[in-house]
Write a structure and sequence with these properties.
The chain is an alpha/beta fold. The protein contains eleven helices and eight strands. Helix 1 runs parallel beside helix 11 and helix 7 crosses helix 8. The longest helix is centred in the last third of the chain and has 18 residues. The chain binds phosphoenolpyruvate.
Length: 250
């Protein structure tokens, strides 16, 4: 019912030449794979270089961030329209590194989600608790606030262009992963939130990715869970062989 999505977030890694080399290797490694959607989100500088290389392939191009305005005096920022122009079909919004390092709050992230959708792109909305929030028993409150805040004002008809990524902050780049059961429990909770805010069909159709140290050796167990519809992959997306193995989960 939900087509899996495996997305690679390259963060602040890879020059243009390195990006071309990685994508060239990845294209070969995932050639013919049709069991899921595949997306890479390189740094802004590599987008327009990679777009022609990816055209016609089974790998989509995404961006890691955007600013929620179309044009104007916003020095240093990039709009969803410019990302679309560079060949992107999706934008990651509200990554925990943006929330923590750049003080992005739910209201600002909500503006970004709306701007991404208005440009005709898919928004990959990241939510996730810190270790402190988890230990304080605040996990469900945090996820509710981030999910409802990020989606505020959106109606069910546009949710088809929204992907949720559950990324427990303590699992990102740490080598720690939520257990398959814990991740499933949270994904099921998030799907319940969508059901409550929208309807059963929206809950059933919205993809919820897991992110946080997804690797070749743990992807199969995670992807076997009913409510895990894909992965947002950081470190392991920087190696074609590892990312291709994740894409070929099973
Ligand atoms: C991420 O950056 O979204 C991420 C999940 O990173 P990693 O896979 O390295 O934990």
């Amino acid at each position: 019912m939900r087509r899996p999505l495996i997305a690679g977030n390259w963060k602040l890694h890879k020059t243009r030449d390195e990006s071309v080399a990685l994508v060239t290797a990845l294209k070969a490694a995932v050639a013919g794979v049709d069991s899921c959607d595949i997306l890479v989100a390189p740094p802004f500088t590599a987008l327009a270089v990679l777009a022609p290389l990816l055209a016609g392939s089974n790998i989509q191009l995404g961006a890691q961030n955007c600013y929620p305005e179309t044009t104007g005096a916003f020095t240093g920022e990039i709009s969803p329209q410019l990302l679309k122009d560079a060949g992107c079909s999706a934008v990651i919004v509200g990554h925990s590194e943006r929330r923590q390092l750049f003080a992005e709050d739910d209201a600002f992230i909500n503006r970004k989600v709306k701007a991404v959708l208005a440009a005709g792109l898919t928004a990959i909305l990241c939510v996730g608790e810190t270790l402190e929030e988890r230990e304080n028993g605040e996990i469900l409150d945090v996820l509710t606030r981030q999910t409802k805040g990020g989606l505020a004002g959106l109606d069910a008809t546009v949710l088809q262009n929204v992907v949720i990524a559950y990324e427990p902050v303590w699992a990102i780049g740490t080598g720690k992963t939520a257990s398959n059961e814990d991740a499933q429990e949270v994904h099921s909770f998030l799907r319940g939130l969508l059901r409550g805010s929208y309807d059963q069909a929206t809950a059933d159709n919205t993809r919820i990715l897991y992110g946080g140290s997804v690797k070749p050796d743990n992807v199969d167990g995670l992807m076997a869970q009913d409510d895990i519809d894909g992965a947002l992959v950081g470190g392991a997306s920087l190696k074609a062989e590892d990312f291709a193995r994740i894409v070929r989960f099973g």
